[in-house]
Amino acid sequence: MMRAKMVFSGEHAGDVARSLDPDNLPDMELELSEEVEEDKEFRVEFSVEKIGTLLATADDLLVNIKIAEDVLNREDG
User: How many C-beta neighbours within 10 Å does residue 16 have?
Assistant: First the structure.
C-alpha cells in the first residue's frame, strides 16, 4: 500500500477543496486547514496499491483543481 499527501494553498483553496469533494474515493481524505485563515489551504491524502493508480489519481486531482481555479478566477474577473 502506498500513501500520498498533497497540500494546496491559494486564494480560493476552500472553494477548490469543496469542488473536489464529490470525487473522493473510499481511501481518500480531504481536509481544509484550520490553521490558515479563511480556508487558504487544503490537504488531500489517499492510499493506493499501484504506482500507476497513484499517478493517475494525482493527475486527476491536479486537472480538477486547475478547472476549479479557472472557473473561480473567471467569476472574480
Answer: 21
